[in-house]
Amino acid sequence: MQKKIVIFGATGGIGSEVARRLRESGCELHLAARNRDALASLADELGADWSAGDVTDDGFFGQVAERAGQVDGLVYAVGTINLRSLGRLSSQDYLADFQVNAVGAALAVQALLPALKKSTADPAVVLFSSIAAGQGFPMHASVGMAKGAVNGLTVSLAAELAPKVRVNAVAPSLTRTPLAAGMLANEKLAASIAAAHPLQRLGEPADIAAAAVFLLSDQTSWMTGQVIGVDGGRSMLRTGT
User: Fold this and answer.
1) pLDDT tens, 193-229?
2) In the CATH scheme, what architecture does the domain 4-229 have?
3) Who contacts 175 (Cβ-Cβ below 8 Å, separation ≥6)?
4) H/E element holding 125?
5) What's an example of a GO molecular-function annotation for this chain (predicted)?
6) Share of the chain above pLDDT 90, in %
């Protein structure tokens, strides 16, 4: 059975890789993102439908649901990297990160839920957390808090929507995407961060996308409520003496 998957954040480094892999596997796609030109180009490449808009606009989710129609899966690959010291974070910073990462994810599921419940193809949702939700890093107060909420949302929705809809999340470490380009522009800093991972490199979009596609597949039909770390071992391992 050909599945139809909606991807929010489809033009991002991870979202676009997820889209390409799903299309290669035969899935039909509905892509959603802010950048209309990039979105139209990707949709043309993949033969997909699309909706342009911003996840901070509550009405956008309903528009996507209406245009997507039948849906068998949902990926919310939208996030922020707002790294500031505690003294430099404002209430607006916290609210903006929470809105994009956590509230947007909840509203996306809410809007697509009627269609997901009608699916006969093992409907599944994949959200995106972060290593920073489970391990403390300086300058990560706002994004760590927001991604911690995604973890809570994942298990709460998994419980509420069982047994019909599965809900899991992927929690990456730093990955080479356009969103992280500012941090990785300094080669020494990038090398230092890479060395902090037991596998001695940064993540690539393909690493993260592979996990997301796996969680949407029938191979994970007995998995729900899980936050899967794809992080080069950084969240669990210490290889130094």
Assistant:
1) 999 999 999 999 999 999 999 999 999 999 999 999 9
2) 3-Layer(aba) Sandwich (3.40)
3) 13, 14, 202, 203, 204, 205, 207, 208
4) strand 124-128
5) oxidoreductase activity
6) 93
